[in-house]
Amino acid sequence: MTSTDRISIGESAFLNKIDAEREWVPIPELAPKGDPDPSRHGVWVRAISAGEHERLTKLSHITIQGRGKNTTQKFDMPTFRIKLVTIAMVTEAGERMFPREEQWKEVAKQSARVIERVSDVALRLCHTEDDTEDEDGD
In a 3-state reduction of DSSP, which class is residue 67? Predict the structure, then answer.
């Protein structure tokens, strides 16, 4: 590819074209009882922005001991996944389903199976690896 084959985008194009991928995730477990087709019930999940990812990562560190420079923190992956779902689920119009940060505590009451299914899609859309498995692959 030569330099004449490349088209450089400008600031305006970069900042005004937010192209978050999104995907439909079926959640038949949440369909009303008696629905003849429970697989049609689900949520839209979108890739989160870089700013949301940074904020989410910071919110998912917990202090386990110490203060100040001697503080030891641990990354809390289960909480990360719940908070990711809270941010990534959107309405059909693309608006956040849970616009307030603290709503993750309510989302955490949902079944682990549903949270895992939705968070797996969100992680894939964000091209983020989930390294919760230990080194033995368990």
Answer: coil
- DSSP label of 60: T
Q: Are 49 and 21 in contact (CB under 8 A)?
A: no
pLDDT tens digit string along 58-108?
888 876 667 777 777 788 888 899 999 999 999 999 899 999 989 999 999
Tokens describing residue 127:
């091209």
Give, for 112, the enclosing helix (H) or strand (E): helix 112-125
Q: What separation in angstroms does the CA of 80 have from each of 9, 34, 76, 96, 100?
A: 33, 34, 6, 17, 16
Token couple for 87: 């941010």
Q: Residue 2 has which token pair?
A: 């030569």
Q: Residue 137 is encoded by which pair of tokens?
A: 């692959």
The shares of helix, strand and coil residues in the chain, as percent rounded to the nearest 5, are 45, 15, 40
Nearest 5°: phi and psi at 14?
A: -65, -45
